[in-house]
Specification:
The chain starts with 17 loop residues before the first helix and ends in a 25-residue tail after the last strand. β2 (about 130-135), α6 and β3 (about 155) form a beta-alpha-beta unit. The chain is α/β, with parallel strands linked by helices and about 375 residues long. It has three domains: about 20-100, Orthogonal Bundle (Non-ribosomal Peptide Synthetase Peptidyl Carrier Protein, Chain A); about 120-230 and about 345-350, Alpha/Beta hydrolase fold, catalytic domain (Rossmann fold); about 245-335, Orthogonal Bundle (Protein Yjbj, Chain: A). The chain is about 45% helix and about 5% strand. A six-stranded mixed sheet has the order 1-3-2-4-5-6.
């Protein structure tokens, strides 16, 4: 799994501020002690990968089960309350019962598989088109405000059933370039690439591949990375592998499937993971789909359009993408390092998180390591 992670174990329950310290480290907060008590994690810039890490921390170490939306709405004050109640209960009732305002196990992501590879996602009509590669869940929800504010046309590349066989970032990049060549011929080479999270790594790889095409096919493509870079994800992936001791494929696959469930539904982490460990490898995704649907049936109004087939595909895709990032992190040390490493030579714009979200400088440099991978 690739995400921002804490590189130390949670302090003993009951120590004031221990949960906030862990969450601050996940978000890369420099001075969390001075935060306003009413500020939410969503307002602090928590992305989807960070929220999964926070959710797993709450469930593993605090017996606190919250939906992803509840986690985005958590304030500094409420985080302190979890710490205090955890101490007062002395391993008694779950803190989540105090903090969840409603039982909403599934977030606002629609569990349908796109049928079209290409999607026009804003009304921009002027300027050079931007081709957008979305994050792990394949949706554009987190980027809606940004995209709506752009005058330039923004075209999204969807994860369809054709993407099922893809197993590496490089394969994914080649697939999407073929989609552009076949379905967006009118653009020629006149477009830029933009990616966020997982999509940032795919966009980078696409830009590098375009650069390597024969001269008559080369594109003067500019690259926009939203809080993302291949080096950044490589470091995060390595940290997670060490933290959770994910030394073999089975443990990595189990953790990616648990991450998928944690992203969308509330489950008992330990018991579900034990169940998946006992489930034959070829049946694990089906089992995850069954657990997911069982949880969703508690909220029947969220079942519209959700099928077991679509959940299985989305769960398998989510797991595969995380495994891709792990593999990519290993490969990019060799590909991007040294004088002969792969370098992106065109214009590259990195848009970092706001100033109050500062990554641990021991893990990531100010430029997210992009000076190693480009001629910026």
């Amino acid at each position: 799994m690739a995400s921002r992670t804490a590189d130390y174990k949670t302090e003993a329950s009951g120590k004031k501020g221990s949960l906030m310290k862990t969450i601050a480290h996940i978000l890369g907060l420099k001075d969390y002690a001075s935060l306003d008590a009413s500020v939410t994690l969503g307002e602090l810039g928590m992305d989807s990968l960070m929220s999964v890490e926070v959710k797993q921390t709450l469930e593993r170490d605090y017996d606190c089960v919250l939906s992803m939306e509840d986690i985005r709405r958590l304030t500094v004050r409420r985080i302190a309350a979890i710490d205090q109640q955890n101490h007062d209960n002395n391993n008694g009732d779950k803190s989540g019962q105090l903090l969840s305002s409603q039982d909403s196990p599934v977030n606002d992501f629609t569990f349908t598989v796109a049928t079209d590879s290409v999607e026009y996602i804003n009304e921009g009509k002027t300027g050079r088109p931007v081709i957008l590669l979305p994050p792990l869940d394949g949706s554009y929800g987190l980027l809606n405000d940004l995209v709506a504010a752009m005058d330039r046309p923004v075209i999204g590349l969807n994860w369809t059933h054709d993407c099922g066989p893809l197993v590496t970032i490089e394969d994914t990049a080649r697939h999407y370039l073929n989609v552009i060549d076949e379905k967006l011929k009118n653009l020629g080479n006149d477009y830029d690439l933009m990616g966020y999270s997982f999509g940032g790594c795919v966009a980078y790889e696409m830009a590098v591949l375009l650069q390597q095409r024969p001269q008559q096919l080369s594109a003067d493509t500019r690259l926009i990375l939203l809080d993302s870079s291949p080096v950044q994800f490589g470091i995060y992936a390595d940290e997670v592998m060490k933290k959770y001791q994910l030394s073999d494929h089975k443990s990595q696959e189990l953790e990616t499937l648990m991450t998928f469930l944690a992203q969308y539904v509330s489950v008992d982490y330990k018991s579900v993971r034990e169940t998946l460990e006992k489930t034959p490898a070829e049946e694990r995704v089906e089992k995850v789909s069954q657990i997911f649907l069982s949880s969703m049936r508690k909220n029947m109004d969220q079942m519209n359009g959700v099928t077991e087939e679509s959940v299985e595909f989305i769960a398998k895709s989510f797991s595969n993408k995380l495994l891709m990032l792990n593999t990519y992190s290993v490969c990019n040390k060799q590909r991007f390092g040294g004088e002969n490493g792969v370098k992106f030579a065109n214009d590259l714009l990195l848009i970092r998180a706001e100033d109050n979200i500062v990554n641990n400088k021991d893990l990531i440099k100010h430029d997210y390591g992009l000076s190693q991978t480009s001629l910026m």
